[in-house]
Amino acid sequence: MISIAICTYNNAKKLAVALESLRHLLCPAELSYEILVIDNNSRDETKDVVQRYQELGGPVLRYVFEPAQGLSHARNRALQEAQGEIVAYLDDDVHVDPGWLTAVAGAFAAHAAAIVGGKSYLIYPGPRPWWLSEESEFLLSKMDYGDQVLLDTDKELYGLNFSVRKDLALQAGGFDPAFGRLGSSSLRSGEEADLMQRVRARGGRAVYEPRAVVGHIVSEERLRIRWFLRRAFAPGVDPQTVRTSQAAVHLLRCCGSVLRTAARGEIRFAVLFGKSLFAVAALRHLLESLRKKQME
Predict the structure, then answer these.
(1) What is the model's pTM?
(2) Distance between CA 131 and CA 270 in Å, rounded?
(3) How many CB atoms lie within 10 A of CB 265?
(4) C-alpha angle 112-116-184 in degrees, rounded to nearest 5
(5) How far is the first Cα of the chain from the last one, in angstroms, to the nearest whole number?
(6) Which of 36, 65, 103, 253 could make an S-S bridge to 211, C-beta 3.0–4.6 Å?
(7) pLDDT 10s digits, 54-70
(8) Backbone dihedral region of 266: left (phi > 0), alpha (psi from -120 to 50 degrees) or beta?
């Protein structure tokens, strides 16, 4: 059995799109599933949306209220509530491909996986902004590592399409509340990457399954330069082995790449902006490294 968990906060309209797409899932005869909606202190019509879909019938759909603010708290609540051996996390702003569930279940069965992540594409409200390059779309959770299954991968698997064996996630300590979104005020991330590191350290296998596909619905408020700068500078999971000197060298290289691009006469703003985002992220890594050094 698989427990599909959607953690949500004040996003009722897009939650309805996600739940509607789940009504069209293809499910193998030998598999059963439930849907959990973890409401993390929403003040909109989230509960009403869930009740409306409960009345339509179909698979088990449960509403759970989690008062501790933060995405990691909501995801840990899903681990506690789930009746399935596998907890498959989806964001509340995705459109799920009908074959997604079959692909996720197949990857766990075929590869003895502990974690399975899939492909995600972007659904824009209109044309992609002229200033946004394809290389920067990963900040909107676009993920495509190709069309081949990757076994025992150490590549990042994004939380909008992230499934894990419940027992192994609990043994690893669940999601760390130090990471993950906190309401609408914080863009911090990396809770799934942190859990993946701990699960893999215990011998768990992470698998990328390209047939497990979801579309990520991009909101208008994210299509602003200011949002991308905030997102690039937001806290995440940093490798513990990175020294301050390494972080400083990485920042200098990123800045140098921006300057070389400009010196070559590259006037496309999207290219310069993309390289600048990497420099902003490198600056955050350096500052975080300095902060950790001061705390030692």
Answers:
(1) 0.87
(2) 4
(3) 6
(4) 150
(5) 45
(6) 103
(7) 999 888 999 999 999 99
(8) beta
